[in-house]
Structures are given as structure tokens and as C-alpha cells.
Amino acid sequence: MKKLTFFICLLPLFALAQTNVERIEPPFWWTGMNNAGLQIMLYGDNLADLRPAINYPGVSIERTVLVENNNYLFVYLNIESTARPGDFFIHLVNDDDVITHNVSYTLRSREQGAAARKGYDNADVMYLITPDRFANGQPANDNMEGMPDKMNRQDKHGRHGGDLRGIINHLDYFSDMGFTAIWLNPVLENNQPQFSYHGYSTTDFYRVDPRFGTNEEYRELVDKARSKGIKIIMDMIMNHCGSGHWWMNDLPGSTWINHPVEYAQTNHKRTTLRDPYASKYDHDLFADGWFVPTMPDLNQRNPLLADYLIQNTIWWIEYLGLA
């Protein structure tokens, strides 16, 4: 009876500890990648006070990076060629050598031929799609709870209901015209109060906006397009994120975005990048200024953020099986 009482008391404490890790990105990775390094970003209450430990064959911790914000912990792993697909724990240990969190992580197998992907070239004929404006294949996802920007076809800046299912349903339309590639404007989550239809204000870099569909439907689109000889080109947004991105409420540090304290809008003077006589002020304002107040400009000079964005690109290429 005492053992049963002990178990009942222990379980809620362990479950409470588990909830402290709110984010882990990327959510999973693959074995057999050309680059053995992997950055994992952990987010939760005071995670920087803990140290990570891993006991999984072929996976080791290369280094741990702390930032200004104590709620972030960046862990760099080395995944050797001998590492096999499977699940393991990233143990988070306190100063008393007690494991306070067991964060589950998964290594997957790469799809056969993944390393030989060619991509698109000048032989391809591309069709550009803004998904919200193309075809509504699933009206049930037009409006989603917790997402304030609702469908309004009378508003030219509002959402009109197009989605991934609408594109899947019309793949013959593209193949019959001879197109070999579809350049898809962004479909990742844009949970913004308004003007979210275009997809350029990302609020989650690892999730398809539910008004467009799911991550799985994005994969389905890529697979079915490939079967018709059509490549999918993913529009990656690296210059900025949306003001509603989850990290904007608790940034990793003061150098994660440009102009974090006082808003500065870009001057759109693109010529300053190649004009040897352009003023440094104009050049820097173009490069670092925000596109609009709802699109914070990401500071890609920050090496942690640069690794994050590069890995996000690789993750989607692998997950979707992009050509």
C-alpha cells in the first residue's frame, strides 16, 4: 500500500516537470545527413539553469550555448554516421545531479534517394500560386478557433479560403498545361490579427497554417505533384517573422531581431547593396529595417538564429521530400 501511495505522489511531480519544456525545435531530425551537426533549441522556464545529457549510441553533445534569456537552452549535437533511427531522451540535470526533465527526441531514417535530390533549374516551367487565392478544397478549415483573421471574401486584404486541398484537387490543371514546377507562396502558420492571407508573417516555422491544411497534407501535395512530374518549390521566409510569433513575447536576446527597442522601417532602397557610394545609414536601414510594423526583421548575423533558419530549410526539404 505504501508503494502505491508513493507512485501516486510521484507521477504529478514528474508530469509537472515535463510541461516546463514548452518548445523543442526542430521537433525531430534524421540519421545519415551529410552534416553531422544539429542545433536543438529548447524553451521553457529557466532551462539555462540545467545541463543536458544524452545516452544514445552515435549521438553526443558537442556544446551547449546560453543566451541572455534564461528560458532558452541551445544544445548542439553530433550525430555520427553509426547512429541509428530511434527515440532517445535529452536529460536535463540540475546542480544536484538530479534529472528534472526527460525530453523525448526522435531520429528518423532518410527516404531512399534523399541525398540525390536535384532541385529545379532553367529547364522547368513554373506556376506561381498564392494558396489563399487559388481554390478552396476544404471549407471546414476556412476559420479556425484561436485565429482572429477570419475569412471575408469581400475584403481584398482578407482571407478568401484557398488551401492545400484545393491545389491537390487541381494538379491535372497544371500538368495539362505543361508546367513542371509549382512555386508555392508561404503556407506556414500566420496567426496574425489581420492581413495574414499572403503567408509572409510566419508565427511558427514548423507548422502549416491550419487554414491551409496540415503538415501531412503538404507532404501529400508534394507526393501527388511528383507523380505527375511536377516539383513543388517552397517559399522560405528568412528576412522576417510575424509579430505574433511565439518568441516575440520572450526573445532569446537583444540581438535576435534588428531594432528590438524602437521600430525602424526599411527604406526599400535596394540599390544600396551594390552602390559603392551609398551611405552606410541608407544601407543599414534597408538591410535591418522592418518591412512593416507586423514583420520584425530577423538578425541573421546572430549565429544561433542563422543556424536555426538554415536547419529549418533543411528540415522542410527532408520532411516534404522536395525534389
Q: What does it look like?
A:
- With 323 residues, the protein is an alpha/beta fold.
- It is 21% helix and 22% strand.
- The chain contains 6 helices and 13 strands.
- The chain has helices spanning 2-19, 164-168, 171-176, 215-227, 280-288, 303-320; strands at 21-25, 29-30, 37-44, 51-54, 59-65, 72-79, 86-93, 99-108, 126-129, 181-184, 188-189, 204-208, 231-234.
- The strands form 4 sheets. Strands 1-3-6-5 form a 4-stranded antiparallel sheet.
- β5 (59-65) and β6 (72-79) form a beta hairpin.
- The longest helix is centred in the N-terminal third of the chain and has 18 residues, at 2-19.
Shape: globular
Distance between the termini: 59 Å
Query: Can you count the helices?
Result: 6
The share of residues in helices is 10-25%
Low-confidence stretches: 1-19
What Rg, in angstroms, do the CA atoms define? 22 Å
Query: What is the number of beta strands?
Result: 13
From the helix content, strand content and strand pairing, which structural class follows?
Answer: alpha/beta
* SSE run: HEEEEEEEEEHHEEEHEHH
Brief overview:
The chain is an alpha/beta fold.
Can you lay out the helices and strands and say which pair or pack?
Layout: H1 2-19, E1 21-25, E2 29-30, E3 37-44, E4 51-54, E5 59-65, E6 72-79, E7 86-93, E8 99-108, E9 126-129, H2 164-168, H3 171-176, E10 181-184, E11 188-189, E12 204-208, H4 215-227, E13 231-234, H5 280-288, H6 303-320
Parallel strand pairs: 2-8, 9-10, 10-13
Antiparallel strand pairs: 1-3, 3-6, 4-7, 5-6, 7-8, 11-12
